[in-house]
Amino acid sequence: MRGEAISGRNEARGGKVVHFTSVFPPFDFRIFHKECRSLVKAGCSVALVAPHDRDEVVQGVRIKAVPKSKGRLARMTLTVWRVYREAVRLGGDLYVFPDPELIPVGLLLRSRGKKVVYDIREFGALQFLTKHYLPLWARGLCGRLVRRLQAFAVPRLSAVLAATPSIAAQFPESARRKLTIVQDFPSLAELSPKDHLS
User: Fold this and answer.
1) How many CB atoms lie within 10 A of CB 159?
2) Which of 11, 38, 49, 100 is deepest in the core (most CB within 10 A)?
3) Of the given ranges (6-15, 33-42, 124-133, 150-159), which has the lowest mean pLDDT?
4) For the chain, how long is the longest CA-to-CA vector?
5) How many Å apart are CA 132 and CA 11, to the nearest integer?
6) Is 37 helix (H, G, I), strand (E, B) or coil?
């Protein structure tokens, strides 16, 4: 993935990009290798806020660790707050996030005048149908809530990346002007048994 795809109009080139997640590990392939490292190669200063055991710099990406949560409720409350706090402290020119639970954080950053990109890897409304830890009645309810939250947020964010055409198709035409499809094809490095960080 080219770094320019995230910035949309090259606003990020030479600037500071903050990628943040409350769900994924820091070395998730799409986040770290396809997005953060691509942005570093494009000339950006890149920081990644994620659940991790320490702060470190890996292949030009500054990883800012937040404590790993114990349980989903703690992740969706305490971890989200910690991620937001660190994201603000880092003072990015552009922010990128992949988690539906971080949509309120993205909207808060927008209210502060920041450019914010939502990277939709999975359509959350349908994803809830497979959440076996939820009772059946709650799965559909949570899915509808996420669908409405995404529909509300997309027009208000700076841009949205969709990992597949089917994800993009879930949104009305009025919202699609903000959407760019950046498909998540596997790379040879992703299929290699070697350590990706070597």
Assistant:
1) 22
2) 49
3) 6-15
4) 48
5) 41
6) helix
How many whole angstroms from its chain centre is CA 9? 19
- Count of the separate structural domains present in the chain: 1
Residue 142: which CATH number?
3.40.50.2000
Looking at residue 77, its amino acid is T
According to DSSP, the residues that pair with 56 across neighbouring strands are: 63
The amino acid that residue 140 corresponds to is G
What residues contact residue 7 under an 8 Å CB cut-off, 6+ apart?
Answer: 13, 17, 42, 94
- Residue 47 backbone zone (phi > 0: left; psi -120 to 50: alpha; other: beta): beta
pTM as predicted: 0.82
Q: Could you tell me if 83 and 21 are in contact, meaning their C-beta atoms sit under 8 angstroms apart?
A: yes
Averaged pLDDT for residues 148-155: 87
- Parent domain of 49: 3-184
Query: Could you give the residue ranges of the DSSP H alpha helices within the chain?
Result: 3-7, 37-41, 72-74, 80-90, 103-111, 124-127, 136-153, 165-169, 173-176, 188-191
Query: What percent of the chain has a predicted confidence (pLDDT) above 70?
Result: 78
Tell me how far apart the alpha carbons of residues 115 and 8 are, in angstroms, rounded to a whole number: 11
Count how many residues are written for the chain: 198
> In 3-state terms, what secondary structure has residue 66?
strand
> Which residue, chain included where needed, has tokens 């841009």?
159
